[in-house]
C-alpha cells in the first residue's frame, strides 16, 4: 500500500466502486484510511473522469491566479498594506484547509474559499517581492507551471515510476525539509541564523532541494488521481483532488519565488 505526504489525499476513498504543503494520493483499501474513516457504499453517482479532475483543478487554479493578481496590484499601488492581506489570507487558508482535510468529504464551496484565500495570501506576498524585484512574479509563475508540466510529462511517459520505495523516499524527504524549516524558524525567533534562509549559498542550495522535493510530490499527486479514476470514485471527489494538488502548487510557487529573490540580490 502506498501513502502520500499530502494530508488531503490520505482520506480519499478507493475501491468498491467508489471510485493522499504539498498531491493525488495512492492506493488504499477499505478500512486502512486514517482517523477510522470508512468509504461509504456505492451510491450510483457518475464515476470520476480525468476531465473532472482537470476541470476542477483549472477552476481552482484560475480563481487563485485572478485573486492573486488583484491582491498583488493592490499592494503594488499601495491601496492596502501587504500585511492587511497576508495575515487574513494565511489564517483563512489554514483554517479552511484543516476543515476540508478533517471533514473528509468533498465540498466545492470550501475548496473555492480556499482558492480565494490562497490568492489573497500569495498575491500580497508576490506584490512585496515584485516591489523589490520587478518581473519576479511572472518568473515564479512560469517556473511553477514549468515544473508542473515537466513532472506531468515524466509521469505520463513512465520515465519515473511511482514505486513504494520511491514513495517512501519522497515522504521521508518532505518530512525532513519541513522539520528543517520549522527548526530554522524556531532558531530565528531566538536570533540564531542557520543560513537556510539568509540568501547565501546554503540558502540557495536548500531552496533547490526543496523545489526538487516539491516537484517529486507531483508524482504522488498524479498517481493518486489515477487511482481515483481506476477505482471509480464519484465525480464530486474531483474537488478534493483539486484541493490536494493546489497545496503542492502553493508550496512550489512560494519556494520558487524565494529562490528567485536570492538570485536577484546584489
Give a quick rundown of the structure:
67% of the residues lie in helices and 0% in strands.
Low-confidence segments, ≥5 residues, pLDDT <50? Answer: 14-42
Helix content: 55-70%
- Number of helices, where a helix is a run of at least 4 consecutive DSSP H or I residues: 7
The ordered H/E elements are HHHHHHH
Q: What is the SS-derived class? A: mainly alpha
Q: Kindly state the mean pLDDT as a whole number?
A: 85
Strand count:
0
Cα-to-Cα separation, first versus last residue: 48 Å
Radius of gyration: 19 Å
Tell me, what's the shape? globular
Structural domain count? 1
Binned strand content: under 5%
Oligomer: single chain
> Main β-sheet, in a few words?
none
Explain how this protein is built.
- The protein has one domain (7-36, 47-263).
- It is 67% helix and 0% strand.
- It contains seven helices and no strands.
- It has helices spanning 50-76, 82-103, 108-132, 136-157, 164-189, 201-231, 238-263.
- With 266 residues, the chain is an all-alpha fold.
- The model is unreliable at 14-42 (pLDDT under 50).
Amino acid at each position: 500500500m502506498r501513502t502520500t505526504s499530502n494530508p488531503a489525499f490520505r482520506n480519499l476513498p478507493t475501491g468498491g466502486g467508489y471510485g493522499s504543503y504539498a498531491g493525488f494520493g495512492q492506493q488504499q483499501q477499505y478500512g486502512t484510511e486514517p482517523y477510522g474513516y470508512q468509504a461509504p457504499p456505492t451510491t450510483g453517482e457518475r464515476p470520476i473522469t480525468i476531465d473532472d479532475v482537470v476541470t476542477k483543478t483549472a477552476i481552482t487554479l484560475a480563481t487563485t491566479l485572478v485573486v492573486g493578481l488583484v491582491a498583488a496590484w493592490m499592494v503594488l499601488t499601495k491601496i492596502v498594506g501587504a500585511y492587511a492581506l497576508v495575515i487574513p489570507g494565511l489564517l483563512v487558508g489554514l483554517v479552511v484547509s484543516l476543515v476540508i482535510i478533517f471533514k473528509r468529504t468533498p465540498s466545492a464551496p470550501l475548496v473555492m474559499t480556499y482558492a480565494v484565500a490562497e490568492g489573497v495570501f500569495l498575491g500580497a506576498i508576490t506584490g512585496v517581492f515584485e516591489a523589490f524585484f520587478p518581473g519576479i512574479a511572472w518568473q515564479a509563475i512560469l517556473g511553477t507551471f514549468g515544473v508542473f508540466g515537466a513532472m506531468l510529462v515524466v509521469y505520463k511517459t513512465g520515465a519515473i515510476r511511482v514505486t513504494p520505495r520511491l514513495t517512501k523516499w519522497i515522504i521521508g524527504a518532505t518530512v525532513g525539509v519541513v522539520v528543517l524549516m520549522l527548526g530554522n524558524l524556531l532558531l530565528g525567533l531566538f536570533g540564531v541564523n542557520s543560513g537556510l534562509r539568509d540568501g547565501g549559498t546554503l540558502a540557495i542550495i536548500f531552496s533547490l532541494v526543496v523545489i526538487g522535493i516539491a516537484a517529486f510530490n507531483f508524482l504522488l499527486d498524479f498517481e493518486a488521481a489515477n487511482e481515483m479514476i481506476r477505482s471509480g470514485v464519484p465525480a464530486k471527489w474531483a474537488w478534493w483532488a483539486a484541493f490536494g494538488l493546489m497545496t503542492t502548487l502553493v508550496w512550489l510557487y512560494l519556494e520558487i519565488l524565494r529562490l528567485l529573490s536570492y538570485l536577484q540580490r546584489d
